[in-house]
Amino acid sequence: MRCISWYRAALVLIGLAGAGAKAQSTAGSARAQIAALLAGSVAAERTDTARSFAQAKQAWTLARQAGLDTAAADAELQLARLYVKVPRPEAATQHLKAVRAAANRMGLWKMEARTYQMEAAIYERTQDFPAMLRLIDASLRILRTHRDHYGQSRLYNWLGFLNQQQGRPREAMQLYLRALRHARSSPDSLQVADVQNAIASLYGVMKEDSLSYVYLRASRDTYARNHDSVSVARLNASLVGPLEGKGRDSAYADQIRLALRQAQALPAKATEGFLPSLYYYKGDLLLRQGRPAAAIAYFRQAEIWLRQRPFLNQLAFVLIGLADAHLQLQHLDIAQRYAYEAYREAQGPEFASTRVYAEEVLSRLYEARGNFRAALTHERRARRINDSLFTRDKTEQLATLRTRYEAEHKENQIRLLQRRAAAQRAEASWQRQYRNLLAGALLVVGLLGAASYRR
């Protein structure tokens, strides 16, 4: 009988082990299926939104049926991401709150912080900045608790960019520098390069070309150490601009040559944002060197690229370069056609200098044709636009100086108030100590008097 009972117990254990192995195998299969569905959903985001949604929902349903809480949270987070992109803010917020609660319950702090950031992005779109900042602050508290310097750097970088967009360069710079400190404390050196690039961009906006150049070089060198050839080529292209017109023609020419060589070795899709600018810079350099025929070859390459990609909004610069080059070669009809087309393209305050250039080219063109009245008309227009451009620049400089003065004045007032408060605290502390010493002395005198009286 004892042998039979041992035999039955062994069968039960074998059955339980088999059931556990089967359940584990089923869970593993479900996890693999969910992972495949989520990967497909992410891949289909840009090309087929409906398919991306369907795969995310299927993954979420499967994870909940299998009781895989972490996988269910991952799938629901992907759903929320898609609702943010569509956009459907109410549905996105509902899913994000559910994921946040699940992540908090399971101790998944990175996921919890991510939900705050995604919800903040919703409020950024609606320009509800107080709500957005509250959510970013909640995310930052989680990241600080867990000493996630990389996450903190990304958030401070985001806040810096927002302040830069809103015309607050001083606050943006403070946030970027904080982002840079955290990036340097994180293991991801590419984040350091991203922040350095953002700082360089801000210095460029502030017309601090020398500082912009320093940070662009630092960012480029960091990308180079990480073998990111596309970013290195893009930043070498960005380094061309700060060297233009600085009396460093050889360095300017070398930088253009280096950037062009790197850009031409990359796929066209990777360089469409900066290769046309390099062709333009090269053509402009050749034009200033008195080589208009060679300049036309580069300007034409830039023109072909930009006509195929009108979203780049750089065609006016290239067209006026072509007009000037053809004018120097006495191709007057072609020069006139390009100049008028450039003038039509150069609409908006950012193209004011291009319109001046177009008017100057047309003035020289009509002078070459012997039509001095038209030449004088275009010369006067160029001067008028140039004067308004000068006035606008001066107004912007005065506004910048006024803003800087007001900010510094406010900071000085805050420092003065802080010093006064510190002095008042020190005086109050000294008076308290004086009163305590006086009370102690009186107590000692009283005790000594009482002792002598008893004797």
Notes on the structure:
This protein is mainly α and about 450 residues long. It has 20 helices and no strands. Helix 3 runs antiparallel to helix 4 (about 90-105). The longest helix has about 80 residues, at about 370-455. The radius of gyration is 34 Å and the shape is flat.
Write a concise keyword list for the protein shown above:
455 residues; mainly alpha; 20 helices; 0% strand
Structure, briefly:
With 455 residues, the protein is mainly α. The chain is built from 20 helices and no strands.
Give the oligomer, counting copies of the same chain as homo and different chains as hetero: single chain
Range of helix content: over 70%
Instruction: Please provide the ordered H/E string of secondary-structure elements.
Output: HHHHHHHHHHHHHHHHHHHH
Q: Please, what is the average pLDDT?
A: 83
Q: Please tally the helical runs, counting DSSP H or I stretches of 4 or more residues.
A: 20
Largest sheet descriptor: none
Distance between the termini: 102 Å
Structural class category: mainly alpha
Please describe the topology of this protein.
Blueprint: H1 2-43, H2 49-65, H3 69-85, H4 89-106, H5 109-125, H6 129-145, H7 149-165, H8 169-185, H9 189-205, H10 209-225, H11 229-238, H12 240-243, H13 249-264, H14 268-271, H15 275-288, H16 292-308, H17 315-328, H18 332-345, H19 352-369, H20 372-454
Helix pairs in contact: 1-2, 1-3, 2-3, 3-4, 3-5, 4-5, 5-6, 6-7, 7-8, 7-9, 8-9, 9-10, 10-11, 11-13, 13-15, 15-16, 15-17, 16-17, 17-18, 17-19, 18-19, 19-20
